[in-house]
Amino acid sequence: MLQSKKLRLGLIVFFAMILTYGCGPVVLPDVYWPGAPDQPRIKYTTQYVGPGDFNKASLIADVLLGGRPVKTLIKPMGVHVSEAGVIYITDTALTVVFALDPVNEDAWSLLRYGKSPFQKPIGVTTDGAGNVYATDAQSKEIMMFNNRGNFLKSIGEDSNIDRPTGLAADTKNNLLYVSDTAAHTIHVFDLITHEHLREVGDGRGTLEGQFNYPAHIAVGPNGDLVVSDTMNARVQVFDKNGIFVITFGKFGDGAGMFARPKGIAVDSEGHIYVADAAFNNIQIFNEDGEVLLAFSGYGKNRGAIILPAGMYIDKDDYIYIADSWNERVNVYEFLGEKHKKRTEEGVTLVK
Question: Which of 75, 108, 254, 303 is deepest in the core (most CB within 10 A)?
């Protein structure tokens, strides 16, 4: 009797969808924040679930997994998009860093001696020449690869890095920033020579300029370094010389507050985005630390997130978020000046 009721209910839903959408493919409505009648500022665009998104990637196999094809993400942690549009994703469960190329529908992984060299990859970034850098929190390494994923060298081996996590490259000022979570500091390297230059931060603590387990980091369009000071539940901003600029946020459950800030990014207009792994949302702040908008939320639906981790905003103001529990990377678009210009010129980007 119960099965019969379930069958009838399923048929009702099925025919309702046919009446609503017709016999062709279902076109789902766009998802925006904020909702109507307010002017939308953020639009959900798509998601990536791994190399299996592309047909050419069907033969990709990681030898550490016994030669089995690797098609989907399991626990994405960090994400970065190169100038060429290649999406790099670190996966701590698969212990691999994937490269997804949506334009050419291709995918590969970062390799050393024919296999993944990672134990716990966290951060990933690229320099102006297309070289790729990735951190391994377990082996305490910062590894450098070419743009096809072939290992070049390790850097910072004499810098006493305890737990490298977040990565960010300032290609204008030739600086490479590495968050050392366990040592409560940010290391600064020359992006060309890879020489260790200095550290940012005044040790562990709650005062301005001090950190308590800093995690993800990003560089703004003006060269400022923004840091997700996770266990202090705040964001700290420093200039390119490592001088403290501003801090904002505190523990709480209200607007502008944090519980577990993780991924952080800056768009072309200087807005700072912070992903909170406890609230399962992203808050947007202006350069003065004033909250402007929150978007996304807990769930598995399109645009929703559970346990967000790393985040990156590309040159076109598309926002990439490692949705770790949902085993995917979500992509959103900031509907700012770059979007307006593209709309006026009739330009359509592949994302």
Answer: 303
